[in-house]
Amino acid sequence: MNSPSAAPAPAIEFAARQARALLVHARLCAEYGAPFPFFSTKDPLSELVSALLSHRTKNAESHRAYQELRATLPTWEAVRDAPTEAVQYAIRACTWPEQKAPRIQAVLREISQRCGTDAPCALDFLAEMPIPEARAWLESISGVGPKTSAATLLFSTLRIPAMPVDSHHHRVAQRLGLIGPKVGEGPAHKLLEALLPPGWDAQQVYDHHEAFMFHGQKCCYFSAPACARCVVLDQCPFGQGRMQASKVA
Ligand code: SF4
HhH-GPD domain location, by residue (predicted)? Predict the structure, then answer.
């Protein structure tokens, strides 16, 4: 989302957006020190639950909620079958535990039914599918959107090159004109992924996502982006507009 004081970035044609995305990628990767080590070593089912916990929650809080859930109910079967209040209590460190607890249990039930197993299956079979099919399989579960499916595939031990777009990544991409001003986080996934070279491996896709996210956290803030010290100001219509406006004022 753009801050209210500057005009939204204008749309530019696909080839220009692609070139800009790659140039910005190179600059941000250099700025923040790519390649970035993968932060997670979770299996895909654990990563899926972790991603569900992380929605609109700070990393430290969702990590605490995940740890307590695992300590209280050590198997996903136990989480699925526990009283919902027990799951809700275990994950109370994250936002909206009253919504996330029943959602997580419903997701675990759905996966168990699809796999036809007593315990929810591990989801390792997703590695055998083409990426769009693996994403579609996950996103056909109620409560699983494109960010969660991509996080499950990329961050888990599967290391499949699917790209999540979080709020920082989305804001930076929008200000740079890589997506239109009205494109939401969900639809942004396909549009931004289309700008990446098709042969990129998981590390490259991960670096792209992390570099945009770090930029949103460390420079391109929501309400007062630090455009004057931004390494991609020359590529950013939104930032250039702000700089011009501050000279006029
Ligand atoms: S110039 Fe940089 S900090 Fe400013 S809006 Fe653009 S990307 Fe964000």
Answer: 53-218
Q: Structurally, what CATH architecture does the domain formed by 14-37+166-190+199-248 represent?
A: Orthogonal Bundle (1.10)
172 within ligand 1 shell (Cβ under 6 A): yes
DSSP track, the chain: ---TTSPPPPP--HHHHHHHHHHHHHHHHHHHTSSPPP-----HHHHHHHHHHHTTS-HHHHHHHHHHHHHHS-SHHHHHHS-HHHHHHHTTTSS-HHHHHHHHHHHHHHHHHHHT-SSPP--GGGGGS-HHHHHHHHHTSTT--HHHHHHHHHHSTT--------HHHHHHHHHTTSS-TT--HHHHHHHHHTTS-TT--HHHHHHHHHHHHHHHHHTS-SSS--GGG-TTGGG-HHHHHHHHHHHH-
Centroid of ligand 1 to alpha carbon of 172 (angstroms)? 7
CATH fit for domain 44-155, picks 3.40.50.620, 1.10.340.30, 3.30.420.40, 3.90.950.10: 1.10.340.30
pTM listed for this prediction: 0.91
Block means of pLDDT (10 residues each) for the chain, 249 residues, are 52 89 98 97 97 92 97 96 98 97 97 88 94 97 97 98 97 97 96 96 98 98 97 98 88
